[in-house]
Amino acid sequence: MTQELEHQFVTELEQNQNIVHKVCSLYTNNRDAHNDLFQEITIQLWKAYPKFRGDSKFSTWMYRVALNTAITLYRKSKKQPKTQDFDSVVYRIQSEEYDPTEQQQINLMYAAVKQLGDIDKALVFLYLEDKNYKEIAETLGISEVNARVKMNRIKTKLKAILNP
Amino acid sequence: MIDELDLLKKDWQKRDSEMPKLSYDQIHRMIWKKSSSVVRWIFYISIIEFIVPHLLYLLPSFRDGMNTDISGALGIQPILIGLSVIQYGVAIYFIVQFYRRYKEISVLDNASNLMDKIMRTRKTVKHYVLFCLGMILIFFMIFILGLYFSDNLVESLQLGKEPDMDPARFKWMVIGIMSVAAIVFTVVMGGIYFLLYGLLTRRLLFNYKDLKRMEG
């Protein structure tokens, strides 16, 4: 029984691991920290898996656990270097229709997002993942109106970071 | 600005191929690893806090201090026994409370509720620690009062031979040492606790305030 559950879980996580990697890439600055957070999220997902009823999609359920782990449960074990050595690997430019100004803008935006607080990052993450405000509000446990207000504030904050 | 964030969104969606890929086996190995989450640490530290005051009895000097002969001679034994009963009663209450709070914590909750529950669990432990620190001070105070009202301190403390000084001076010296010990002990215990928790939940507290500010 446990083995079956294990197999099912690992298979589903393997297929959906991008969600977790994306969370890790937002919240950490180097490969060690990335792997560390990935592992903690995996442990939390596995612990909660027996309660996953399948009434929502596995991926939907993952967003909540992954973000909760990143902003609430996770303890940064080692001091993270301020330099973003991992970014150069993860945020590699791979656009076919390469537009230097557009790409530059995108890179600047990524750098700005990484400077945001943990909660703000969670909102941006869900927004980038194309979640609507209702889902964002439910995941964070705030009202929909506040989610919108907060998102607007983040946009202003990003603008300030980009144009100091 | 909206355009820029939407630009980012478009790029973000394309980034799947750039993400690291872990194999089935790599993920499988991870699921049995030990969690190092804040909640787990709060749990460990709480267990230590419930045990440590009792470990003190293993120290010879502390055991002697609580020695029934001495407390009997000082006439404070019934009070100490009464206080111990209260202390154990309250400790059991806190253990039950803590366990209930701890069980309530679920990673499936929304972020706000999850943080609320962790903070409540942390608060339960905090109250318990404050209670323990208070009890330590009370124990010391009763002991000091016992010393103060003792007619023959040398005999009560079972020192054997008379010290080479005025008995009244000797009494005040012992009381002074005990008072300093009481304060130092309480401050050190409290300091360790608040430092541990402060460091452990600093980031959590920061995010908690950030999220609550949003609602306020």
Automatic annotation (TrEMBL), chain A:
Q: The RNA polymerase sigma factor 70 region 4 type domain covers which part of the protein?
A: 109-158
Gene3D superfamilies listed in its UniProt record? 1.10.1740.10, Winged helix-like DNA-binding domain superfamily/Winged helix DNA-binding domain
InterPro entries according to UniProt: RNA_pol_sigma-70-like, RNA_pol_sigma-70_dom, RNA_pol_sigma70_r2, RNA_pol_sigma70_r4_t2, RNA_pol_sigma_r2, RNA_pol_sigma_r3/r4-like, WH-like_DNA-bd_sf
Domain named RNA polymerase sigma-70 region: residues: 14-79
Alphabetized UniProt keyword annotations: Sigma factor, Transcription, Transcription regulation
Its Gene Ontology biological processes?
DNA-templated transcription initiation
- Molecular-function GO term, any one: DNA binding
Cleaved signal peptide residues = none
**Of which family is this protein a member?**
Belongs to the sigma-70 factor family. ECF subfamily.
Q: Tell me the protein's name.
A: RNA polymerase sigma-70 factor, ECF subfamily
Organism field: Robiginitalea myxolifaciens
Automatic annotation (TrEMBL), chain B:
Q: Which domain of life is it from?
A: Bacteria
Q: Which UniProt keywords apply?
A: Membrane, Transmembrane, Transmembrane helix
Specify whether Membrane is a keyword of the entry.
Answer: yes
Q: Which residues cross the membrane?
A: 38-59, 79-96, 128-150, 170-200
The protein, known as: Uncharacterized protein
What is the originating organism of this protein? Robiginitalea myxolifaciens
